[in-house]
Design a protein that fits this description.
heterotetramer; A: alpha/beta; 5-stranded mixed beta sheet; B: Rossmann fold; 5-stranded parallel beta sheet; two-stranded antiparallel ribbon; 11 helices; binds thiamine diphosphate; binds magnesium ion
Chain lengths: 324, 319, 324, 319
């Protein structure tokens, strides 16, 4: 174990998996000598050379297609889409090709590829460079979706993603790259579909994804001072989703808040709320409250962007409302 | 390039197999026996046949919505194809894919594709794997004139050329994308001219002349295999049927079709083979009969095969 | 009023709006002489000529971009994407450009365009020609989303869509093109955000979109024979969504089923369930049940495709479960 | 084409205005005064200036992530630009857009764009509107060398040529897409060669020579305005700064930059104007001073303007 940033943890995972398996390679824009727009692939070009760390032109459809075709013929590509916001130029290759190929072919293909992309607001990058789009990927049979919130998870989940025989969409939060935490030195795969209970509590369950898991912990701290004991659950992967852990928690706390940074309407919070409203209805003592961004594109200016990103105060208010 | 006699006869047989297969499908569709869309390849047989005849078993192809010809030419099994088109569990995709998604990864067939322009990027991926591994497998990417206007196709051409990938882009210019004639969808007369945008060879060939296709694609395959990168081969041809079965073809004149029927690639090649003493009338007839029998067996197989059970729906989503 | 098919109703709306407003024009693949893949634009090329009914190459990004640019500079384009499944090749032009342009420009542009596309399974068109993708559009600030289920709504909502000053995604169900119903002869705009109560009932609320509204009515018929009185609500537009009508109904029936043809996980049903689980929690007597397609691509073969499409029996079973 | 003196002086002023504006931004960014990404246009001023100088007020442009130069050249107001980049409510987009989304539809500026290749399809739309209405407005679509590999750009070129739309595609080939040199992203040496794929004129021009840009784009604008369709003008140039402020430029040699700094388009043009007796040393200095004053006023305006209120977030989503 050592203290590492989320970014270093990702870099570790890539390096160790590439050392372990010669079929693993990286492709994307500026992932080579430049080291990736946020630096995640730093040093890999030097270590593995340009055959395994491949700079591409600006051509996201061709990137995902190249990954898909290479995966279908036996390699294990890890491609980077520089910002998840660019998914719109290449969505077809992802959702109609990579995601469906196995099914359409009657189970006769494997597509072991990873699509890494940073999400999220907070750096003033405005409407086309700040989105959180996981809800689209949740609604996409054939892919898995990981959203690590800690350095340890970043490493463990990326290792699992690379070893998985299906397309995995791996969503990093750009505001988390710099956070530090303990990370195992070895390459330990962290299972998909197992939520982390970030904090135990009795009174209210807060399910929060990605960076919002940190916001939820902050809120839990404030709530504790009020005498409200919040349980914070981080699903870690939303597809598969650990519904059981959420339901178990709700059975204990009898109330649920779901928080994410994506736009609230049609977000992943809706799915989680709906699952609980079906599976644990009888245990609920209060309405399910969702916290998410307002129904707008991400605005540029700092005060607007800050108003866009759900805050700990929003969660605290919701929890108080539930108790009140 | 001289083509050996055995290969010539094989190519004749392949074209005949495609024609017979598609003609049967036409009947079955009219009789309401096939669900979904069926896009027939009748009239274009020389393209798939000539192109795939240049390939080795381990080479790859990516196909299109109009894929039956490509699949047959790459060695696809008629039984499993027919069963798939009938939606049977014994089909290539267990009935999950249908006409537009037939694949046989073991035969190097990386799928028909329902998305116009969907195949190019994937073809690059297979070619990249070949280059990565240092084996010399080549990929043929079939795409239509309409598909050449789709951004994914153009990105695929660019990446293949920037990375010198072993892909041969075989354009089937049959004059139309559904109802849209090429003269309305693009300003260039020859799609091969688009090769200039990527600094790769661009060749126009008579797509109804199977040996011409074989030679042009063969040249490109050789280039690709020896590391000289991709090429674009445009095969001018024509589809006899509507875009899909059921299309009344209001957008084109009958006389245009008649002209092209005169250029039917199969009798044309048959006559040539006869003239050169490679194929006798009897041998040709025997081939046709053998294929008809093979097809009958495929049909019987498909008809007798069971449909999938509803419960199978959840299988094969994830590995 | 006259009996018309859904398809004729759409065609009527296009024709009347084009007659009324010279700025309205159509573009898309095979929309001209061919009349559109399903025939929706039949006859318009003849009446209005190729300047106003424009056949495009196969180039969806350029189609949506052309519509966006033309709309931003004052025209009112109606573009057709032949199957909604093709949205993946042009999603960027829709969600990062058309949808966000007004906001990014600080309110200084109007984008009055319509994107029409057929959705849905039922004709054996398999995984890339049968999807229902409205959940993606629901999660997209800046656009409105209509999903007509009757010929009258098809006409009225399309007229409203064309007159709206925002991008409207207009989702037709390909299995509904042939259904008949009374349609007003005049061009009457039907307001967005007003659900239709297709059948009144006391015991259970069934919210069902698009073709599923018909399936729900069928289910309600069966349930009536059991003595269960179901109220069937068709939202007509999901963005804006008439939450009020749904909540009002739940206050009366105390139970909710949401049904749609899209894949259940992450579907619009989740949003509706979540809204009700927050806004009408105290009125609910039972879990909220969602009915949607299983988590798979759309399979080709008839028995599989039929198993994919949610049925009246599924709804009936759910209603009985709620009552049981 | 002979350019009148007034226009020459205007072009000198525009280039100067862009240079001063960008140089200030460089300082402000370093001082932490600007949120988000800033992509500077220093070194490329002749392209936007020469291209926009051929346009009328009612003509349109679409821009890119590196948009300040285009906007200034099309007449953008420095005050509102600066305020927007500072995230102020008085900015062009009320602080909602920032550097990458500045637009002024009334001035024909259809937006900077954060998506590489995003502008081409939209440019076609404005051109289509012009053709539809029968007015003769022309659209200039700026795009980078990197953007020329994006499918949306290629689709836009194709549709514009198939429909003979009045668009001039002005390629700014500054040698890199972030860290990727053009020689790695494409096999062609000249992006202008891609015009052949659409049967439109393709011209290479020295992008650091404002009169050469003016002439080549002017020719293309004339063609477009008279109904002869689109053109592709490639302007070879170089960005002096990193891709965005903060980029250490590990991917290129300092000597490359030095060579290009020697080709600085502004002193080069200034000398020419002096030699031709069009612009005196004093006049040039006066222009620089006036622009500096204008810029100071813009900065003061931006600094003194209020930030938006959080409550404004919900406005402007829908019309
Ligand atoms: C992205 C996309 N757009 C549109 C379609 C609908 N479509 C199916 S085939 C076709 C025409 C294709 O033309 P071409 O590439 O020339 O192939 P051909 O049918 O002539 O063999 C169209 C428009 C599609 N399947 N995918
Ligand atoms: C679709 C998309 N892919 C990638 C990016 C990230 N990106 C922003 S600018 C840029 C380089 C653009 O290069 P070029 O078109 O040559 O313009 P330049 O920056 O040189 O002016 C890249 C890759 C983006 N914004 N959009
Ligand atoms: Mg064609
Ligand atoms: Mg560049």
């Amino acid at each position: 174990m050592a203290m590492k940033t989320y970014l270093q943890a990702l870099n570790d995972a890539l390096r160790q998996e590439m050392e372990r398996d010669p079929d693993v390679f990286i492709l994307g824009e500026d992932v080579g000598q430049f080291g990736g727009c946020f630096g995640v692939t730093q040093g890999l070009f030097k270590q593995f050379g340009e055959a395994r760390v491949k700079d591409t032109p600006i051509t996201e459809s061709a990137i995902i297609g190249a990954a898909t075709g290479a995966a279908a013929t036996g390699l294990r590509p890890v491609c980077e889409i520089m910002f998840v916001d660019f998914i719109g130029v290449c969505m077809d290759q992802l959702f109609n090709q990579a995601a469906k190929m196995r099914y359409m072919f009657g189970g006769k293909a494997k597509i072991p590829m990873v699509l890494r992309a940073p999400q999220g607001a907070g750096i003033g990058a405005a409407a086309q460079h700040s989105q959180s789009l996981e809800a689209w990927f949740l609604h996409m049979p054939g892919v898995k979706v990981a959203m690590p919130s800690t350095p340890e998870d970043a490493k463990g989940l990326l290792i699992t993603a690379i070893r998985d025989d299906n397309p995995v969409i791996f969503l990093e939060h750009k505001m988390l790259y710099g956070i530090e935490g303990e990370v195992p030195d070895e390459a330990i795969a962290m299972p998909f579909g197992q939520a982390a209970i970030r904090r135990e509590g009795r009174d209210v369950t807060i399910v929060a994804t990605s960076k919002m898991a940190h916001t939820a912990l902050e809120a839990a701290e404030t709530l504790a001072a009020d005498g409200i004991s919040a349980e914070v659950i981080d699903p870690r992967t939303i597809s598969p989703l650990d519904t059981q852990a959420i339901v178990d928690s709700v059975k204990k706390t009898h109330s649920l808040i779901v928080a994410h940074e994506a736009v609230k309407t049609g977000g992943v919070g809706a799915e989680i709320a709906a699952q609980v409203a079906e599976a644990a209805f009888d245990y609920l003592d209060a309405p399910i409250i969702r916290i998410g961004a307002p129904f707008t594109p991400v605005p540029f200016s700092v005060p607007l962007e800050q108003a866009f990103i759900p805050s700990a105060a929003d969660i605290v208010k919701a929890a108080r409302r539930l108790r009140g | 390039m001289s083509i050996d006699k055995e290969k010539m006869i094989q190519m004749f047989a392949t074209m005949t197999r495609i024609r017979q297969f598609e003609t049967k499908l036409q009947e079955f569709f009219a009789a309401g026996k096939i669900p979904g869309f069926v896009h027939l390849y009748i009239g274009e047989e020389a393209v798939a046949t000539g192109a795939c005849a240049t390939l080795r078993d381990q080479d790859y192809i990516t196909s299109t919505h109009r894929g039956h010809g490509h699949l047959i030419a790459k060695g696809g099994d008629l039984k499993r194809m027919m069963a798939e088109i009938f939606g049977k569990r014994t089909g290539y995709c267990k009935g999950k894919g249908g006409s537009m998604h037939i694949a046989d990864v073991e035969l190097g067939i990386l799928g028909a594709n329902g998305i116009v322009g969907g195949g190019g990027p994937i073809a690059n991926g297979a070619a990249l794997a070949s280059k990565y591994r240092g084996n010399d497998r080549v990929v043929v990417c079939f795409f239509g004139d309409g598909a050449s206007n789709q951004g994914t196709t153009q990105e695929a051409l660019n990446l293949a050329s920037a990375w010198r990938l072993p892909v041969v882009f075989v354009n089937e210019n049959n004059g139309y994308g559904i109802s849209c004639p090429t003269c309305k969808s693009m300003a260039v007369a020859d799609i091969a001219d688009r090769a200039a945008a990527y600094d790769i060879p661009g060749v126009v060939v008579d797509g109804n002349d199977v040996t011409a296709v074989y030679e042009a694609v063969g040249e490109a395959v050789k280039r690709a295999r020896t590391g000289d990168g991709p090429s674009l081969i445009e095969c001018k041809t024509y589809r006899w049927r509507g875009h899909f079965e059921g299309d009344a073809c209001v957008y084109r004149d009958d006389c245009e079709l008649e002209d092209w029927v005169k250029k039917d690639p199969i009798p044309r090649f048959e006559k040539k083979l006869q003239a050169e003493g490679i194929l006798s009338v009897e041998k040709a007839e025997a081939i046709r009969k053998a294929i008809a029998a093979e097809l009958d067996a495929a049909i019987a197989f498909a008809e007798q095969s069971p449909l999938p059970e509803a419960s199978e729906i959840l299988e094969d989503v994830y590995a």
